[in-house]
Amino acid sequence: MCGIVGAIAQRDVSPILLEGLRRLEYRGYDSCGVCTVSDGGFNCVKTVEKVQALTAKVQQHPCPGRLGIAHTRWATHGGPSETNAHPHIVGNLAMVHNGIIENFAQMKEELLKAGYAFKSQTDTEALLARIHFLHAKQGLPLINAFAKALSEVKGSYALALIDRDHPETLYVARQGSPLVIGLGIGENFAASDVLALLPVTRRFIYMKEGEIAALTTSEVKLYDLSLNPLHAEIAESDLDAESISKGKYRHFMQKEIFEQPEALASTMMGRLSGDRVDLSSVAGFSKAALSDIDSIKIVACGTSYHAGLVGKYWLEELAGISTSVEIASEYRYRKAVVKPHSLFVTISQSGETADTLASLRLAKKQGYAATLCVCNVSASSLMRESDFSLMTRAGAEIGVASTKAFTTQLLCLLLLTVYLGALRGALSPEREKEITSAIRALPEAARAVLSGDERVSRLAEEFAGKHHCLFLGRGIMYPIALEGALKLKEISYIHAEGYAAGELKHGPIALIDDKMPVVVVAPDNALLSKLESNIEEVRARGGRLCVFSQGAGSLREDPQTEILTLPPAPAILQPILFTLPLQLLAYHCAVINGTDVDQPRNLAKSVTVE
Ligand code: G6P
Fold it and tell me: Which of 222, 243, 264 is at the close of a domain?
């Protein structure tokens, strides 16, 4: 959720920290701050505005120094304010934190008795005071005090800690929230995400759970919580610094929508062989482990959950595998019955979503035959902890509303379906050939749909001033309706609900009037005539319709009904292709409503707290 950066160098670190924060702002953006050390003192600047405002503030109140930490916040304990913003300072120590310290109240109570006073309402300040107490009052060397305090913590953290009296070391730790160490020449860094550090290095150590590190300009020492030294594996990132530029686009979300043809092409690269889907080269995939699978449990959150719902339709229909899909925050707290020969699948853009990760850890104790993740971030926790992984390869996704990650997740699930279907003999070679040739045509088909952007932007004007909206779909297009509604509400703040069109008459029809647009996803498929009856039910009650179709059936435009026709394409691609105009619709509505498209209020891209 929050983003943290730390740096120790032989040059001023504040430009590195501020650029790092700018790149991490997708993680949370209700306040931010930076703190460096110079001449034995802290230089700390904070704001309840965005990183751009912090950068301007730092120009007025410079933060010199070769050691520093910085933070962009998504509030958990204590509302957004300068006092609650990080870095927090207690005596000679300053710290930034991503995560939640669940037992902070108890910690605080004991520290109050020991004479500590607290400025903020945060859990972070309590933990920092505890470290300070162990170091300053009980005389433990700082790293020992840090490790001891962390061993008392219940909850999750990624932390960066500095001591103004000893500005030669930056301390970091990780448990439950992501943290990477970046290796420079004569300088070292830490951050919540490699993206923050790409301008200064490509060499990283991905910290594992329960690790602590001490960074100086010349070395990185890695320990466990008992301070036993550990070996650090160094990995090279293939992302480039440009992956977080908007290029010619106005917003990251717009750029990411238009990147989908290339993203989809890269998702399928090396995974199609002639008329077949071949996932045998995918990291860790073993035919032996997968050929016995006869049921699948998919667990995810948000948009990734919607991808799972689409996957269920494919896996059951094409591969004949019984599949159920659950929201991770629900799955992790209930007692599930695990069928034998069952595969546990997580789907996640970030690979760090706390509930999804907790569900995976639970599943590993529950007797699943194997675990697989569909994920966009290599070296993420989910990827490291799953038996198999299918990378979506969408490239860095910065806009908080997920777009290219979703469609590439869908493609991965389709590839997985075909692979498993063929492995089990449920899918004939002819059908496999048909689907693989459709998949090859997908990037071009996506490009054709995106070329209708202007028409969608005109349609979006219909939504100006509207407060509510319904999205309807049937069959495999029902989860697409859910995703369309989620996109619209999260970035335009128009209240939107997705419904299975057949459910209309069981409640939502009561809402129909001429002030609430009803968006219908109506491709040319076996359920079109059923959907047309649902459309008539809306029309008969004076509802305003906005239908995405392929020109089939008896649908006609009239003053109540606007039809946007998509180019013809193979039926198997419909869920992916019909997602695109819904993303564009949400985008244009948000632009018209003047919202912050890439950083909508109250949301964060990577939800690393439960
Ligand atoms: C947040 C994001 C969503 C995303 C969800 C799950 O809510 O704003 O866009 O779908 O988390 O994230 P994941 O990284 O697990 O796909």
Answer: 243
> Ligand 1 centre and the CA of 607: distance in Å?
7
Q: Which of 36, 270, 69 is nearest to 164 (CA)?
A: 36
How much is the pTM? 0.84
Write the CATH number for 341. 3.40.50.10490
**Averages of pLDDT over each 10 residues, the chain, 610 residues:** 93 97 87 97 96 96 97 86 96 96 94 96 96 97 98 95 98 94 97 94 94 97 97 88 80 96 93 91 73 93 98 97 97 93 96 94 95 92 93 91 97 97 93 97 96 95 89 97 97 94 87 90 92 88 91 84 93 97 97 90 78
Domain count, the chain: 3
| Residue 192 near residue 176 (C-beta atoms within 8 A) | no
Distance, CA 11 to ligand 1 centroid (Å)? Answer: 36
Q: Which of 2, 26, 301, 375 to mutate to test the pocket of ligand 1 (most atoms within 8 A of CB)?
A: 301
Indicate whether 85 and 215 sit together in one domain.
Answer: yes
Atom of ligand 1 nearest to the CA of 382: 15
Kindly state whether residue 412 falls inside one of the protein's structural domains: yes
Centre of ligand 1 from the C-alpha of residue 580, in Å: 18
> Does one domain contain both 368 and 417?
yes
* Helices and strands (H, E) in the chain, number of each type: 19, 27
For 413-558, list the strands marked E by DSSP. Answer: 468-473, 495-500, 517-522, 544-549
CATH code, domain with 224: 3.60.20.10
The DSSP output letter for 168 is T
DSSP characters for 573-602?
A: GHHHHHHHHHHHHHHHHHHHHT--SSS-TT
Residue 304 Cβ inside 6 Å of ligand 1? The answer reads: yes
What is the reported pLDDT for 505?
A: 85
